[in-house]
Amino acid sequence: MSGRPAAGNGPRRAVPPVPAVWPGAPTPLGARFRVGPDGVAGTNFALWAAGAEGVRVCLFDEAGRETQIPLTELTHEIWHGFVPGVLPGQRYGYRVDGRWDPWTGARWNPAKLLLDPYARAVDGEFGLPPEVYGHVRDWPEQQVADTVRDERDSAPHVPKGVVVHDDDDWSDDRRPKTPWADSVIYELHVRGFTRRHPGVPRELRGTYAGLAHPAAIEHLVKLGVTAVELLPVHQFAHEDHLLRRGMRNYWGYNSIGYFAPHAAYAASGTTGQQVGEFKRMVRALHAAGIEVILDVVYNHTAEAGELGPTLSLKGIDNRGYYRLQDDARRYADYTGCGNTLHVVRPQVLRLITDSLRYWVTEMGVDGFRFDLAAALARSMHDVDMLSPFLAVIAQDPVLRRVKLIAEPWDIGSGGYQVGAFPPLWTEWNDRYRNAVRDFWRHALPDVREMGYRLSGSSDLYAWGGRRPYASVNFVTAHDGFTLRDLVSYGTKHNEANGENNRDGTDDNRSWNCGAEGETDDARIRALRRRQLRNLLTTLLLSTGVPMLVAGDELGRTQRGNNNAYCQDNEISWLDWSLLEDPGWRALYELTARLIALRHRHPVLRRRAFFSGRAQTADGLRDLAWFTPRGAEMTEGDWYAPAATLGMYLSGRDIPGRDERGAPVVDDSFLAVLHAGDRPTAFDLPGPPWAERYEVVVDTSLEEQAEAPATVHRAGTRITVPERAVLLLKVA
Questions:
Q1: CB distance 365 to 355 below 8 Å
Q2: 407 is catalytic
Q3: Catalytic: 138?
């Protein structure tokens, strides 16, 4: 092995004259514009780099010329200085000096311009030419390539941070503050949602401004959702293997700037304008009564493993920011993305919590969904629900008041933690997803699992004061089949991703209804639409917090691709022309009707778990389960093979009181779910359950009847069509 570095021209020399630098302050971290001594305007730069031997802030003019300014003040491992005359819009980065000793995890390389972890805006895109790697990427002996330092200057090839002036006090904003139990979440991609929207001006499509446009918000309001959950909007980079194939990371789960709105989603500019545009989007959504939840990726960064690029944290203090193995050349990878942030370390924890508070207090967001949250809850190695990360969140006066959603797993040992997060948190409930998918493809051995999932998953969440809304119920998410593809494909079709169809899960629990992919068979098409109605109705009648994926209500398809993370094209973008098709328009209208029904009836969005016990002498209980013979289910019925389940929800026994202290009383409902391929008889339960039943929803019908509704007397034997849900209101 040779340790000789690659040839190169070295770091750029500073362009004189070098501005004066005053001591400044070690807090707050980042580049903060302010008025300094004697009323002089400038920017304070502060960077935590514990093991570094020196730090230079590098300023870039419009021609790309660089001026390097040493930060000579060091306070508690933070290098800092105030530079007079540096105003908002200034582009900058850092060069950090230190040892190159990969065997001990030290990877300092001053030839690499580094993005400020606290940059509020980022200008430019990350490409990945050899110059942006701290090591010699094309070293002939690849097994040791990461140990050979590359001396080529990366500055011409990487984006720069931008100084942003933020004086917004949000005094004109009104947060919706929707209670958890009343929430309906809508997961969407900022770019994909509006990229093809005919009502959004072409120049705004695919941007924050596009999502803020009245035409986009109108759809959300008519649908009735209370919150949008945005796929990652932190500044992210594209992976090398995608760039080599001429592709890009579309989803954005490859963050590199935890304070900066992703610049490519801005219509107004990228030298700070993206910050204001994002805020205007949040305000517009709030004005429509819609909360904004961010999908955040604090478990890893875009710098990958030891063979990845040097873009920010790796060059600032590799050992301080990342989990390393016993062999410190290697990264501990609990994420499948090459690295894992070392959240146990105070400075890393500070970076994350500072970022979270920033998005709440200065950018106006209402909550977060944490990607691979189990990785954040690891102490030294094991997942620990008393970990520093969870403890800090629980006591933080800002963060403990916003919506917190965990994706409660990672890929490491012991990483599956569904039902284990502490009471402050809600969780994506994949056991709900799996049970509902299996029930409607008639693959459950019995109905026990469905009983738990429909009624709030008390087996997972009825502890520690948790409530039914701890379960975020979903049938689909961005990762996997769309709802339409779930009933149209038996296997994944990811060939367009260029990975020989090896990527994406094989555990889809899907059923193509008799043909693979699109078909002209009218019978199969009708069956698929019925299955979509069944899945959406089940989701929106279940206790817990429902989450829809943008476009599922329109019949959006990804052509069988269940891992469209790199498809920034019509595979992923919403096709709004589907609303012109009567069949898909009817699906949208049913979804809106079900959400409205949920909003009207508190029995469908309970704040406490069911007791299943009779509260009065007549024997009526808040929750009861019935067989097709109209009899209450016995222990044996739960274990027997079955395709039909009757669920009675009593509106008379809802725990809690309204804002004025009055009891909450609602209608009662009977939901009959039948997954069999033939019609079945069902005896409607008599008193004390009901005297009459009024049909509210019948998913066997393409168009839902409004009025007059069909009314059945209690005790009547009705016919439930094959593969259908009947929702009946007690009259």
A1: no
A2: yes
A3: no
